[in-house]
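Structure request: Imidazoleglycerol-phosphate dehydratase, Magnetococcus marinus.
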Amino acid sequence: MARIATESRTTGETKIQVTLNLDGSGKAQVDTGVGFLDHMLDQIARHGGMDLEIEACGDQHIDDHHTVEDVGITMGQAFRQAIGDRRGITRFGHAYVPLDEALSRVVVDLSNRPSLSWRVKFPTQKVGNFDTELFKEWFAAFAQQGGITMHVESLYGENSHHIAESCFKALARALRSACAVDATLGGVAPSTKGTLSD
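Returned structure:
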């Protein structure tokens, strides 16, 4: 069964469409109008082994907040649809990813009990024109809508770009592990409850 989903979101602030294939080859076509976010989402596709298409436009004459958050929301909704009832998946995943002097760790549980633990500090308020406080907004929106328990931690780092990119790459690798099908489960949900869809 193909694990592919398309979701869209239209509000007075943004218009977004996301297509996500969990079993892709790492291809990305992303145009959010926010250059650094595009760069980070390309990392999700490339290192997560997913195919990702995103078209977004938002009220960036105000700032990038609505676009960043709503892309996270819509991508999370697409992830939830693509992963389906979560039967037979590995469920848990973690990754440590370095980028030069920075090292980050991400741990995920595809539990359908969304939450975000965020322990990331940036030494600067911006990466280029991108507000670093918006990284947490994207991760929170994606985790909430995707039904993911997520722990994101920057263990150390000095460069804000490197810290952010190592977090996104670590998320990609953690999701890749958690989404993998575990043949030993025989299609059963990896939970003593017998389900992860409720």
